[in-house]
Amino acid sequence: xxxxxxxxxxxxxxxxxxxxxxxxxxxxxxxxxxxxxxxxxxxxxxxxxxxxxxxxxxxxxxxxxxxxxxxxxxxxxxxxxxxxxxxxxxxxxxxxxxxxxxxxxxxxxxxxxxxxxxxxxxxxxxxxxxxxxxxxxxxxxxxxxxxxxxxxxxxxxxxxxxxxxxxxxxxxxxxxxxxxxxxxxxxxxxxxxxxxxxxxxxxxxxxxxxxxxxxxxxxxxxxxxxxxxxxxxxxxxxxxxxxxxxxxxxxxxxxxxxxxxxxxxxxxxxxxxxxxxxxxxxxxxxxxxxxxxxxxxxxxxxxxxxxxxxxxxxxxxxxxxxxxxxxxxxxxxxxxxxx
Length: 339
Hints:
Strand content: under 5%
Pathway: Carbohydrate biosynthesis; gluconeogenesis
Structural class: mainly alpha
Number of strands: 0
Number of helices: 13
Protein name: Glucose-6-phosphatase
Membrane topology: Multi-pass membrane protein
GO molecular function: glucose-6-phosphatase activity
Number of domains: 1
EC number: 3.1.3.9
């Protein structure tokens, strides 16, 4: 793998030098490809267009990110920003690269979570849109446009991850292919109309199975905190190391979102039926609500409290999008029509 990693570093150097003027663009793309964006941006946008597609997005995002965590624990995988220093292969000729605030993620690098979750989630979106366009127009050309957009998204997210030294190219490719497969499989198994007990059991099962795997690997002598140590050692700035990039943060996010999805369907089975104008208003209000929920500062010590509050934060996400905001909009718009 040493030759693969080395070539990846030189590719990142070339990419940074040739596209330095597009630095802001790549940083925006990598933020849009963050798994968190699937929960906070793609899910509400999709839900208010198609309820089933929205539920599918949340379901696929949670399962694919959980699987990405498991793959990372099992496959390890270096990250460029720390491997450059750890490998000691560039003592005589240091690559001319620099880090960014999004570079210093603390989990292992393989496969890329950004690429994997983006590929899985956006497959749900573009396949639904493609099917809709074909059913309305019967045009293969028009219905294939969403898939072209899908390829552009994956390529852009992949390049952005290599550009900021978060991943090697082969990790991005592996994540994209795995996400494509998962999106295709999981989108046909959306848990609509399932009881709350299903979601509670599923969320608890994911949490416990990940913890058991973690403990089991530690019992085998595998220190799963190795990547956190290297990230702290080689990150350019200490403040770029954030607790919400630690693997357990993604685990609590996924379990919280799934439990929240079950609660939302329990409180309001089938969701609120709204015309297009109230849907657009609900989307705008939901987006503002999720923005402020995401920005809520959480105490980083003790870490157990941080993870609990992080879990609660993502339990609230489906409640805001599926129950609270559309219910409030329905109440006021219905009352106005009645008056």
